[in-house]
């Protein structure tokens, strides 16, 4: 085998190793998703409770609190309302309206009041339902602050944002906010009917199992191809060279040799 063949074989083995690792990563993600689904099922089944009893003094909504039903009572601060742009529900584009609810102890929680479908190509909602006045009791599902990597979509700018992020909103709104937010499921007085509700969580295993099998299949193909072509190379090297036919010597050549 020449150097080029050895280099190609090593490249195939590296490729197979990478495929195996990617498959393992997908199965690891599957286990994480199953664990998250179990937490979600437990939280969905739990009875509603005051937000401070669920989160405690840190006031941070973590993965373990996702979709837990909390109850808060306070007054909406309509002057610090934020319009969430570029939102989608069931592939339908629109806006979400987030309004801080200031509680009796001075702390505030971001309330996602609902979804307003985009009517045409407007960049802002044509009409935003008025914020209820007076004391309001909100029941809703807790969600952790949204994060968008290196983007700054969680910092409100001109009354709009792309993500709901408690700490980023607090910097601009000047409120002592919980780190997270609530999606309304019930409101007293009742929420405006113009708002559409939110769908529940997706509780399934996703595509990770089949993706994992797919990567391992690619690894098997790579190794199988290497073995096949290696055997072909070895067979080619062992095959005897064809015998050259003897060329009959001319009479003139024999006569010249005798002279």
UniProtKB/TrEMBL annotation:
It is a multi-pass membrane protein. Keywords: Cell membrane, Membrane, Transmembrane, Transmembrane helix. The chain crosses the membrane at residues 209-229. It is found in: Cell membrane; Membrane. Residues 234-259 are annotated as: Disordered. Residues 247-259 have a biased composition (Basic and acidic residues). The keyword Membrane applies. InterPro entries: Surf1/Shy1 (IPR002994), Surf1/Surf4 (IPR045214). Pfam families: SURF1. GO terms for cellular component: plasma membrane. Belongs to the SURF1 family. This is SURF1-like protein. It comes from Kribbella rubisoli.
């Amino acid at each position: 085998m020449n150097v080029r063949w050895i280099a190609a074989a090593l490249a195939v083995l590296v490729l197979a190793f990478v495929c195996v690792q990617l498959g393992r990563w997908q199965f690891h993600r599957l286990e994480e998703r199953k664990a998250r689904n179990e937490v979600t099922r437990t939280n969905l089944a739990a009875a509603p409770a005051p937000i401070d009893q669920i989160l405690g003094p840190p006031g941070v909504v973590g993965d373990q609190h996702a979709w837990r039903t909390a109850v808060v009572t306070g007054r909406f601060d309509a002057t610090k309302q934020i319009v969430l742009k570029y939102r989608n529900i069931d592939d339908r584009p629109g806006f979400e309206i987030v309004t801080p609810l200031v509680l009796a102890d001075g702390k505030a929680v971001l309330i996602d009041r609902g979804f307003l479908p985009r009517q045409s190509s407007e960049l802002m909602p044509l009409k935003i339902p008025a914020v209820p006045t007076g004391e309001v009791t909100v029941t809703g599902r807790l969600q952790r602050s949204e994060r968008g990597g290196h983007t700054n979509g969680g910092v409100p700018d001109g009354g709009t944002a792309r993500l709901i992020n408690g700490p980023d909103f607090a910097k601009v709104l000047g409120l002592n906010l919980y780190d997270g937010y609530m999606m309304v499921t019930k409101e007293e007085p009742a929420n405006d009917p113009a708002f559409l509700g939110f769908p529940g969580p997706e509780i399934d295993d996703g595509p990770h199992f089949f993706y994992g099998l797919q990567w391992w299949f690619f690894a098997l193909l790579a190794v199988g191809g290497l073995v096949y072509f290696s055997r072909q190379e070895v067979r080619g090297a062992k095959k005897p060279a064809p015998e050259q036919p003897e060329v009959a010597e001319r009479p003139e050549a024999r006569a010249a040799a005798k002279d």
